[in-house]
Structures are given as structure tokens and as C-alpha cells.
Amino acid sequence: MTAAETEPGIVDAHHHVWDLSVRDQDWISGAELAPLRRDFTLADLAPEARAAGVTATVLVQTITVPDETPEFLALAADSDLVAGVVGWTDLTAPDVAETLAELRAGPGGEHLVGIRHQVQGEPDPRWLVRPEVLRGLSAVAEAGLVYDLVVKPHQLAAAVEAAERLPGLTFVLDHLGKPPIASGELDPWAQQIRRLAALRNTVCKLSGMVTEADWGSWTVAALAPYADTVLDAFGPERLMFGSDWPVCRLAATYAEVIATERELTAGLGPAERHDVFTGTAARTYDLSVPARPAPPQETPCA
């Protein structure tokens, strides 16, 4: 067996798909987001992912409707690329535990690895620590799932409190908590990141940076202080790569995103880079990650 045959595949721990003929994505509005107002499918993603060495992905919910999660689970069941699904359910519903059990028992249910809610859109900065939400988060933990956090910097304090109150639940911070990269500010975002990372039941996705920067003029140097902050706070063993495709296309191609994240982690050793690009996601979401296929062998001339 050659080294190429045993080279580990990369996990893309964060991407989306949608079909506008099935359901509208009402968050895609205005001229700036117009490039996203079309269907994006696994067939669109697959060649880009494979070219980058990605052999497993995590498909993440986009809207807060119950039907999307079973649809995503069915997609995962028929895909050799999607290894896990982070879905949505109403955390405030009294029957959240029963709903999670039904999702796990349905088609593709073994691919359900986590739950997410668009907390970033909630007007209450302390939504995560409402009693009914904490009850729902407890049900997520009891189901053996993780919880993806999509929050803005002003909501990080509540995320810290929720993680403190539920030490048995792993919280995965999406997109670094959406720091203000375009303005170049670090604090108070960085202070809250260090508070969150001090809790061992937290993990962070190195994702979504290019769209928090200036879409037309971002540079790797502009992203570096934010990547360095989470690398220092969480460590590579609690940091994972995510493309945020197709949203990333507003500012960068899939290939550019992964090349950028390789550059941002160039100072790490091989084992640490393996954590960021494969190991952390595999451990956190309990994923099976296929090795990269060996390149085709050239046939020697006779």
C-alpha cells in the first residue's frame, strides 16, 4: 500500500445546499446576495471538494423549518461525501426529545450529528440561556448530539454561560463567532473567545472568515489575527476547517478558501494540521473519514 493510498482525507465541517424549487431561502435578499439566489447541490460541490482532497463533509441547516432536516438526512444517506448532518429543530418545543428520537429513527437518521439554530437572528442577546432553550439543549446532549453555535460577538457572553451550565454538551462555534474582520477590530470579540475556549466542552470552526472580511479586497494577512486568536485559544485539537460553501462564493472560490486556511495554519506541525483539517471534526461529530484515493498509476511503455 502506497503513502498516497493511506493519506487521510480532509473533512469540510461546514457547508450548505439548497433547492429553490423545493423551498425559498428567504435570507437570500438584496443585490449583495444575488449570486446565491440559485440552486446549489451536492453535485455542484462534489468536484470542488474532491479536487481539494475532501472526502467527508458536514451538511449544515440553512433555515428554521422542520422539513429541511429529514431532507438533508435523506441526502446524506444517498451520498458518499456527506458524513454528517447538523439539522434544526425547535429547541423551545416541549417535545424536542421525541422529535430528535424520530429524526434518528428515520431514513438517514444515523447521519444526524448535531443541531443548530440561527441565534444570530434572535433579538434577545441572552436567547441561549432562556430556561426553555436550556431545556432543549439538555435534550440535544441526552441524544448524544452536539450543538452548533451561530452567533454574533454580542451574543458570545450568553454562549459562554450556556456552555458553563451544560458541561455535558459539546458546543461548536461556527465562523469564529463572526468577528468584525472588515473593520479590523479584535476586542471585545477576542476577550469573549478566550472565555468560551477556556471551557473544555467547546470547539471552533475555522470557517466563514472571507465573508466577514471585505469581500472584494480581503487578504490572508487581514484574516491572520482572527485565525491566530482562535488557534491560540482553542488549540488545533479543538479547531476544525469548514468552507461555508456556497456562501463563501461571495468572496472566494472553494479552492481559494482551502488554500487560505492552509496558509493560515502553515506554522503548525503535521499532527496539528491533521487535527484542523481532519481529526477535530472526526472526533467531535464521530465521523468516518475515507482516505484520499490514490492517483492513477501511469502505465509503463512496453
Automatic annotation (TrEMBL):
Presence of keyword Hydrolase:
yes
Q: Which domain of life is it from?
A: Bacteria
One GO MF term attached to the UniProt entry: hydrolase activity
Q: Per UniProt, what is one Pfam family of this protein?
A: Amidohydro_2
- Tell me the ranges covered by the Amidohydrolase-related domain, including all copies: 11-287
The UniProt entry, under SUPFAM superfamilies, shows:
Metallo-dependent hydrolases
Spell out the Gene3D superfamilies in the cross-references.
Metal-dependent hydrolases
Annotated keywords: Hydrolase
Reply yes or no: does the keyword Protein transport apply. Answer: no
For this chain, the family text in UniProt reads: Belongs to the metallo-dependent hydrolases superfamily.
- What name does the UniProt record give this protein? Amidohydrolase
* Species whose genome carries this gene: Streptomyces dysideae
